[in-house]
């Protein structure tokens, strides 16, 4: 599925990068992300998964849902709450 097709179900603040990227799945665990997946970043009680975004990118994440811009050359959907 194209990333732009997912945007209708996401309340986002800002978009950056190519929204026509192909997304093959969704993950919020950088240790298990596979090539082509959308990586979801959020702030938790003990961990901020934004800190693992680079690892997810290196493992092949195609795009990111995040609460602030990442220093990664991949499409990013900036949202108010990554958990939502």
Number of strand elements:
5
Strand order of the largest sheet: 1-5-4-3-2
Biggest β-sheet, characterized?
5 strands, mixed
Structure annotation, total helices: 2
Mean pLDDT: 92
- How far do the termini sit from each other? 21 Å
**Radius of gyration over C-alpha positions, nearest whole angstrom:** 11 Å
Helix content percent band: 10-25%
Shape: globular
Low-confidence region ranges: none
Helix and strand topology:
Elements lengths: L2 H4 L7 E3 L8 E3 L9 E4 L12 H6 L4 E4 L9 E3 L6
Parallel strand pairs: 2-3, 3-4, 4-5
Antiparallel strand pairs: 1-5
Structure write-up:
The protein is of the alpha/beta class. Helix content is 12%, strand content 20%. The protein has a 5-stranded mixed beta sheet. It is globular, with a radius of gyration of 11 Å.
